[in-house]
Predict the structure.
Amino acid sequence: GAGVSQTPSNKVTEKGKYVELRCDPISGHTALYWYRQSLGQGPEFLIYFQGTGAADDSGLPNDRFFAVRPEGSVSTLKIQRTERGDSAVYLCASSPETGELFFGEGSRLTVL
Amino acid sequence: AQSVAQPEDQVNVAEGNPLTVKCTYSVSGNPYLFWYVQYPNRGLQFLLKYITGDNLVKGSYGFEAEFNKSQTSFHLKKPSALVSDSALYFCAALKRGYQKVTFGTGTKLQVIP
């Protein structure tokens, strides 16, 4: 499809485990964002990529969270030593740099 | 720090009636402003944006939004609500020259048949 693709759509893991969430943006979009959405809340900014580099990672909650975009297209959000408080829907969006974001359907992470 | 406020957790409106979903922002300068809609178990979908110019912006599905600089508001409106408009609506703002888009907490719109 032509939209933003996120995998897995659902991930259940145990506390302390390592998790990777993948985002495949719309072709040609150089800007890529990760957001986190908890139940009843608006999306919370995590990190923004322009090309391969993280232009703004000020929203990453701590050093257990890391994201990469090595070739300027697909991005992976990595969470080490997961905690129950990390449970949320992780949203990826790409942008053609006209301002609006195009979101994927999210990866729902549940940490038991 | 920039912030976006949506003062109503839920708005109920009868089908066929006009609807308004409120949004105010606290962002320096003249920000870009957006509305997104989220249907159950789906990602956010772009509705409309304000960049500059006319204070009334028209978007998808018959929605429009009115920018008011003096009140720092960007309320979403539709002249005649449909049951299918029932969803979660998010207002967002982007400070010019930056890339971090800030979202409000969302307003659940319930259109009653």
